[in-house]
Design a protein that fits this description.
single chain; 60s Ribosomal Protein L30, Chain: A; Phosphoribosyl-aminoimidazole Synthetase, Chain A, domain 2; 7-stranded mixed sheet; 11 helices; alpha+beta
Length: 319
């Protein structure tokens, strides 16, 4: 099987069929029809075997996760995901692996109404790179730079589940049988908060998704917005699985530094806080206020029951 047969067999009709795709897979480049009055939002994410996933990881889960983590970035901007490009590097052609990977890619792209429109295939150490493109009404993209002093800080869902799933896979932590399915699902098959991200366009002053852990990720908002933050760790939303499986110190480490939650972290001004629950209630996703934005640029204060919470960050660092 050569490169072009590989593309034709596994990736030529991947994801949803979008009416705004002029030319997709199979030409020198894709041709996409961006709507009038909209901005194009683009993100890129790479997953490398041995660094971001186990070499023997389930290929279907990899296909799902590659789409979901990219779409999560689009969701954090309040945008609608639309198109995907895939650059895949493989040590050899394994048809069973490719079939499962393509199935995970296709079903997840279709779920988020995305179409695969191009990419590249090469031989080498396994590496998966995706570029996701989305659409947002002009000037409505939510950025990391809009947080203001006094804004309330929120997160969606629960924190630490995926990190506990990783520890379970590594044999570093025990989880009771009744919680294992939930924990492994959160690790292998994350969800992107697309609809909720779009609902936040006219509410949130800043937003981002949580990929490297709350403690690390919120620093990006603080830096870009020129503000500080105070977080009450006793408010961090934890699943019953994390509560039942971990002591308090471990639970805090997972929630603050574990990473791969792909929940949304966002800030809301006082004036818009009252409408938040009403506007977001149809989406069925819990949101939790965990603190407020403060005026000392770059300062992140952690507290518990109004007392300082001493914490040493131990999350993932790329370099």
């Amino acid at each position: 099987m050569d490169e072009f047969e590989l593309i034709s067999r596994y990736f030529s009709n991947c994801g949803a069929k979008r009416h705004d795709t002029g030319i997709g897979v199979g030409d020198d480049a894709a041709v996409l029809q961006v709507r009038d009055g909209c901005d194009l939002v683009i993100t890129t994410d790479t997953m490398v075997a041995g660094t971001h996933f186990f070499p023997d990881a389930d290929p279907r889960a990899l296909g799902h996760k590659l789409v979901a983590v990219n779409v999560s970035d689009i969701a954090a901007m309040g945008a609608e995901p639309a198109w995907l490009s895939l650059a895949i590097t493989l040590p050899s052609i394994d048809e069973a692996w490719l079939s499962a990977f393509a199935a995970g890619l296709h079903e997840t792209a279709e779920y988020y109404n995305c179409q695969l429109v191009g990419g590249d295939t090469t031989r080498g150490p396994m590496s998966l790179t995706m570029v996701a493109k989305g659409i947002v009404p002009r000037g409505k993209a939510i950025t990391r730079s809009g947080a203001k002093v006094g804004d309330y800080i929120y997160v969606t869902g629960t924190l630490g589940d995926a990190a506990l799933g990783l520890k379970l896979c590594q044999g570093l932590h025990e989880v009771s049988k009744k919680h294992q399915t939930h924990i492994l699902q959160r690790f292998h098959f994350p969800s992107a908060r697309v609809a909720l991200g779009q609902a936040l366009r006219n509410i949130a002053s800043s937003a981002m998704d949580l990929s490297d852990g709350l403690y690390s990720d919120i620093q990006h908002i603080l830096k870009r917005s020129g503000v500080g933050a105070s977080i009450d760790v006793s408010r961090l939303p934890l699943s019953q699985a994390v509560k039942d499986s971990c002591d308090n110190a471990t639970a805090m480490q997972l929630a603050l530094s574990g990473g791969e939650d792909y929940e949304l972290l966002f800030t809301v001004p006082e004036a818009k806080r009252g409408s938040l629950d009403v506007l977001l209630s149809p989406y069925g996703i819990a949101i939790t206020c965990i603190g407020r934005i403060t005026g000392v640029a770059g300062k992140l204060e952690l507290k518990q029951a109004e007392q300082p919470f001493n914490y040493v960050h131990s999350g993932f660092i790329h370099f």
